[in-house]
Amino acid sequence: MQSAPGYYPQTYFGGPPPDHPQAVVVLILGILSLVFCQLIGPVAWVMGSRARKEIQASGGAVGGSGMVNAGWICGIIASSLMILAVLFFVLLAVVGAFASN
């Protein structure tokens, strides 16, 4: 198939695959878990993990992997920060208990 002079050949047929239905939700939860409340982090982590598996299993029929990965990573970071904060406060309580004796 030759294209008309001055035009590029048509190489891409159809539009991009639709995004995963939870892609935007995972991204929003991941961002909110970093900015406002780390308790949402594990939710973004679990939802992102499920959505990633579904996108990989679709074989390219479902898109949105960038949004899902970003939300998933934000959820992991927020969960890690939450765990570190809890450990820090536990350490402070233990040191404070020993220091008061």
| Count of strand segments | 0
SS-based class: mainly alpha
The profile of the biggest β sheet is:
none
What is the average of the pLDDT values? 89
- From the spread of the alpha carbons, the general shape counts as rod-shaped
How many helical elements? 3
Estimate percent helicity: 55-70%
Rg from alpha-carbon coordinates: 22 Å
CA-CA gap between termini: 87 Å
In terms of DSSP E residues, the strand content is: under 5%
Count of separate structural domains: 1
N to C succession of SSEs? HHH
* Contiguous uncertain segments of 5+ residues: none
Keywords: Membrane, Transmembrane, Transmembrane helix
Protein name: DUF4190 domain-containing protein
Transmembrane segments: 23-47, 68-99
Organism: Nocardia yunnanensis
